[in-house]
Input
Amino acid sequence: MTDSSVAAVPGARSKRKAWPAELNALIGLIVIMILFEIIGWIVVDQSFLMNKLRLSIMITQVAVVGILAVGVTQVIISGGIDLSGGSIIGATAMIAMSFAQVGTNARAIFHAQGWVDLPIIIPIMVGLSVALICGLINGLLIAYVKLPPFIATLGMMVSARGVALWYTKGQPISFPTESFMAIGDGLMPVWIFIAIATLFTLILKFTVYGRHTYAIGSNEASARMSGINVERHLMLVYVIAALLAGLAGLVLVARAQTAQAVFGTMNELDAIAMAVIGGVSLSGGRGSILGTALGMLIFGVIFSGFIFLSVDAYYQNMVKGAIIVGAVALDQWRQKRQAREV
Amino acid sequence: MSSNSSDIILKTEGLTKHYGGVHALEDANFELRRGEHVAIMGDNGAGKSTFVRQITGVEQRTRGRVLFDGQEVHFKGPLEAREAGIETVFQNLALADDLDVPSNLFLGREKILVKLGPFSILDFKGMRTATEDALKRTAVKIPNLANTIRNMSGGQRQCVAIARTATFASKLIIMDEPTAALGVQETAQVENIIRQLKANGEPLVLISHNMRQVFELADRIVVFRRGRIVANLKKSETNSEDIVAYITGAKTGTDGRATH
Amino acid sequence: MKKLVIGAVAAALISSCAQAADKKIGATLSSLEFTFIAVMAKGMTDHAAKLPGVKLQLEDAKNDVANQLSQVQNFIASGVDAIIVNAVDTSATQAMTDAAAKAKIPLVYVNRQPINVDTLPDNQAFVASNEVDSGTLETKEICRILKDKGKGKGANVVVLVGELSNQAAVQRTKDVHDVIATPDCNFMKVVEEQTGGWKRDAGQDIVTNWISKGVKFDAIIANNDDMALGAINALKKAGISTKDIPVGGVDATQEALKAMQDGDLAVTVFQDAAGQGKGSIDTALKIIAGEKVEKKVYIPFQLVTPANIKDYLSKN
Output
């Protein structure tokens, strides 16, 4: 048999441990934190990191978009894209909030009907139902009508925002019940994010759902050949993404204690950026929730860091943009190098 | 013929495929016995792949009959064909680049530890053990099963694709130019696997352009030209000049059918 | 979707007064995504509905300059009697002015000041509140409160700025600095300034970050109420009393008024959105009737404090 020698050659090559994309994000996060720490001592004369309140706000201020980003991550891994998340946040926020108002507010949307001071489960179920409908439409258009995900979710992005605006003709909805506000209070958004991120890390790693998500993103034709019901699976992927966007919308209104039709605008792009910075490949098949969480933390650290240094938001956006481009460039370079090695 | 019909695993009668006005496949009559390895040769566009696509249900035939394992079949898609026991190694390897070897072998038919609908929990250990067994059966050597396909050489990928067909109890394996994109050493590795399949008594349809390979591995050679089967020859009764003559059209006629 | 709904509203308006000798008014608004513009739109439709023989057609330009210009051209083509424009880009208004002037159709700009406001032809006008007033009223009131608290010798203030690209944010922030530059209020000092993009959660996050940094401030001046309410949340979470730190906003939203009643918000400024919408229609009708109107018609800003809050509870 000659194959033992044959196998040895490629075998030796593949023994080099692949450099996980998440590691780039982790190194980036640490470098940025150290930078702010050093500049902090020089400019502000205090520690950036050794501050409990700052550490908590760093995470809290990005946790809502983080919840959205978990859903977006699994969409990107499946080889798709979801631009509708931000608008679904808006639609969910508005409609859910109208079922979470206190009775003492005479201008509550459903005051006449007496639908005020409702138990917390009602606005949550209403909000998630709105998201579910959006997700079903996305899934249907992408999996069965075969529209490109970019187009289908772009349509949903515009339409769901339309729903959010139409619902009260642009008027904000305010005065939620105490119990509803609790889901956005203090560190609650962070705990919800951690729970969701952990759940989906496990799902992507250990279940058939995760395996098929990676397979479809990796090579949809082969997934189909292998007997995966690609249509049904993509349907589920987009429904889950929309439900997580809906959850993000609920947490956001509870935190802001008000709902506005513009809520979530541009959040879908932040979520995609978080995933990309965390090493999730836009061509599908690769990435993890952990990476996205690291990308989220980078955003949080930058936001707090720039306020810490009293630097204008203009610069913040410039730096954010540069990091997104840099992360993708690094990933491409890594892929090319890997392709050369094999 | 009827006496040994149970011996026949695959038979086509008058299999025909027209794409609009193009007659890609015309009246193909073909037989494969259990344990037999048959090579299909022919120029590009001669109808080889079209022939395979009609059998495996990737496309729907214009007319004709396909009998598989004694039964007339009409697969609606490649999945049905596979469920019936026909495993195909396609030209464009149907592998998911970002998954490791066991995941690819069991893609779409994962072993399950806890059943929870789409969120059923995977049986990693079971799939790994079964993968090792399958690789042993096909004499494929992959150094690190946890490596993703992306990080593997073309030969290793092809081996994984072939091993996948052998993982599940299949009645017939079809390979569409399995070594077309491979180097010399990698080709040798794949050919070893094919010999192993022969030793195991698994029937095989091998589409190939490689004359040396065909004469080394096949029991019988079928030549397609312009959508028709123009020759059907036992390896012992022909030689490469003869086959080339049929492929190029220098030699014509249906004398090949005599050995039917 | 948005357009459909607006269309439906417009259709209802049209059918309700189809018999009268119609005055057709076409209005194009920068973007209904902004609450203020939406309230203004409602002010317009409500007012038009009360006027017999006035047909109002509302269009949303969706923040697109080209879109808005073509909407104006469509109004002209369909022969409206007057056009109302809430400009998407205040520096790109000349083309719309020219188009309307050429067709001899009256045109009224509302809320956002066009760049060519001083050279508008006779049958065109600008209806708005004087933006300089809002930030000035707010900052002067904060200045007064700080003095009352005995901090007239020196006080730190932090500023929450709206969307950077927005004229009102730029103007209101400039007002803050202008008031502080006056001898009356120069004891105040801006120690931090950051943009919260009009958003409440951003206002809360930014103020929390300032608190974590140990920034010492005596007052918070926000470009709008939502950011001010976010700031109040942040103060409360950090255990800081709003009695000690006066917080100011602009807009006098329902929630801001509620927060003021609760003793959390010290000052806000009422910009009469519905009044501007109503004023734009009245001005357009006057021009149609051949009456003389001012080039700039101002609907005044009004300072809202706990002392006069009752007057505003049902206005927005």
Summary: Confidence is low (pLDDT under 50) at residues 12-20 of chain C. Chain C is about 45% helix and 20% strand. The radius of gyration of chain C is 21 Å.
